[in-house]
Specification:
By secondary structure, the protein is mostly beta strands. It has one domain (8-26, 41-134). It has one helix at residues 8-23, and strands spanning 44-46, 49-55, 58-74, 77-89, 95-107, 113-118, 122-125, 131-134.
C-alpha cells in the first residue's frame, strides 16, 4: 500500500483540499449567517492545525491555545477566537478577524481583509489587493 506524508502549512492546505474533494464539499447550515447561502464547512483538524474551507459563510473558529490555522475558500466572514500560532489565509474576498496571532500571519489570497487584535506576528502579504492591520 502506498502512503504519502503531509507536513507543514502547505501540506495541511493540501490535506483540506483532498478532504473537501473526497467529501464532495458538503456543507451544513449555520443558522442565519447573513450570506444568504447557509453554506458552511466544519473545520478539520490535522495535527495541531485547524483547516477551514468554505464559500460564502459567516462562522466563528477557535485556535484554542496555540494551534495553527489555514483558511481557504471565498467570500467568507470569519471571527477567530483564541491564540493562533501561525495563520495562513488563501482564497479570495475573505474577511478575517483574529484575537491573537503569535508567530506568523501569511496572506496568500486576493482581496482579503485581515485584522488581528493581539500579538506581534511576522506578516507576509504575498497575495494581491489584501488589507492587513492590527486593531
Amino acid at each position: 500500500m502506498n502512503s504519502a506524508r503531509i507536513s507543514g502549512i502547505g501540506g495541511a492546505l493540501a490535506a483540506v483540499m483532498c478532504l473537501a474533494a473526497l467529501s464532495g464539499c458538503t456543507s451544513t447550515p449555520n443558522g442565519d449567517n447573513g450570506s444568504g447561502s447557509g453554506a458552511t464547512n466544519t473545520p478539520v483538524e490535522v495535527g495541531n492545525t485547524v483547516n477551514y474551507t468554505s464559500t460564502g459563510s459567516t462562522n466563528v473558529l477557535d485556535c484554542a491555545d496555540g494551534k495553527s490555522l489555514t483558511i481557504g475558500g471565498a467570500n467568507n466572514t470569519l471571527t477567530v477566537n483564541g491564540t493562533c500560532s501561525t495563520v495562513n489565509i488563501g482564497g479570495t474576498d475573505n474577511k478575517v478577524t483574529l484575537d491573537t496571532v503569535t508567530t506568523a500571519l501569511d496572506v496568500v489570497g486576493m482581496n482579503a481583509t485581515v485584522v488581528y487584535k493581539n500579538g506581534s506576528p511576522k506578516v507576509n502579504n504575498t497575495g494581491s489587493r489584501n488589507t492587513i492591520h492590527k486593531s
